[in-house]
């Protein structure tokens, strides 16, 4: 499943979900690299 995370104040990364950490952060994989950050809230159009 694709997930988007925020790294810092203005950098976001979208990749495949690898893991969810106990502190609320998630790990995503892009090609050969993994990134850890806070998940971006999903916005649903009504």
Overall pLDDT, averaged?
94
Helix/strand/pairing category: mainly beta
β-sheet strand percentage? over 45%
Widest β-sheet, arrangement of strands: 1-2-3-4
Strand segment count: 4
Number of domains: 1
**Succession of helices and strands:** EEEE
The 3D shape can be described as: globular
Helix proportion range? under 10%
Unreliably modeled segments: none
Short description:
This protein has strands at about 1-5, 10-20, 25-30, 35-40. The protein is an all-beta fold.
Q: How is this structure best described in words?
A:
By secondary structure, this protein is mainly beta. The chain has one domain. 0% of the residues lie in helices and 61% in strands. The chain has no helices and four strands. It has a four-stranded antiparallel beta barrel with strand order 1-2-3-4. The model has no long low-confidence stretch (mean pLDDT 94).
Any key phrases for this structure?
four-stranded antiparallel barrel; single chain; 46 residues
Topology:
Blueprint lengths: L1 E6 L3 E10 L5 E5 L2 E7 L7
Antiparallel strand pairs: 1-2, 1-4, 2-3, 3-4
């Amino acid at each position: 499943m694709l997930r988007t995370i925020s790294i810092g104040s203005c950098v976001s990364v979208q990749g495949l979900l690898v893991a969810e950490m106990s502190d609320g952060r998630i790990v995503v994989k892009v090609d050969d690299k993994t990134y850890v950050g806070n998940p971006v809230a999903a916005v649903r159009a009504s």
